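Lecture 7 notes: from sequence to structure.

We start with a single chain of 429 residues. Read the sequence below before looking at the structure.
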Amino acid sequence: MERIDRMCECVCRGARIGVALTTIIGAGVALATPSRAADSMTWIGTWAASPQPVWDGDFPLPTLLPFNLWNQTVRQVVRLSLGGNRLRIVISNEYGTEPLIINAAHIALAGQGSAIRDGSDRVLTFSGSETAVVPPGAPMISDPVDIDVPARGDVSVSLFVASPTPLSTFHWDAEQAGYIGAGNQVAAAAIKDPSEITTRIFLTDVLVEAPQGARTVVALGDSITDGAASGLNLNVRWPDFLAERLAGDNVAVLNAGISGARLLRSRMGENALARFGRDVLSQPNIRAVVVLIGINDIAWPGQSFAPRDPFPTLDDIVTGFRQLIAQAHTRNIRIVVGTLTPFENALAGSPLEGYYNRQRDELRQKVNAWIRTSGEFDAVVDLDAIIRDPANPLHMKAEYDSGDHLHAGAGGTKAIADAMTLDVLFGNQ
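Now the structure, written as tokens:
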């Protein structure tokens, strides 16, 4: 069930929280919120990481997770899109089968590494309690906390778990270092003797109180959107560049990319049709979604990621896109699509050999031709034309290539973001 159904229109995954409300009911939890007369303000998502279920050992990629958390603190750094002076976080037990107990949670301005900035540490509460008990399958949103953060500012969120807790809900490809330390260190100036992680654990959203009129763009995609190969702690994913450019226009950019994500099938995260309601439609003040997905549907079948999956047809992929269009348009949300970028020799010489072949590329080109000519999306950004090498259109330009011939480096991600103009994203809105 979509999270919007579990937490009402005003709560799910950063959903709208009316500033004049005194009580929000969601997922069986009453969330006390002080009445405010600031009718000029609204709650909006300022950062997001789409939750994924942890996979089993029969998949070729490791989860990069510890076995569990037990009397440990995990500190995670996130870079916000819009700034403000009141924040909330969302933690998720989306794929858990037992209640998730967070015994303490703090938020602070991030310093270097696991450090936080002096004087910025704040206690987070959940419905007035410093302990959060998150039911299976549910998210939980914190109470508001006063903390001044600029646009594109970094915050650290620290969660302490006392009892042995399996890790069932995470985001695999953070491209950001996180830190785990023994005991309750949520208020520590820096995590003592930390182990480093590159995944997100339980944390899925940060919300900010923003002026009325703030708008949200959600980037829905796979590893190209998630930021794979863009570099640890660099914040040079294409949604990062877009967020930096649009912050002055009061536009939040949320990254709903999942490395390995597919349009039609689930494995590294649920398929796009299944998660569209949770990761896109539930966001408050959303005006547009940018879709860049489909390359894994084409490249996975028959190789180590999905050896038994059938090869899709053009009709299969078109049907999936049309469902995303229908879901967006029923909510009056503008849907923008990017053509699939070139990937000849992608991941060659790695354990994922076979990701590219000529049959796969022929289908990519057919999908792109349909995207360009169908007229069914509200706008098309021809990323294939922007990224490809004119001398070899099956390859991306060398200056845009991260080196694996699939994911763009910083030059390529900036070129993608630069193509997402206000006119493309919002039209006449």
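Residues 218 and 265 are 21 Å apart (CA to CA). Keep this in mind for problem set 3.
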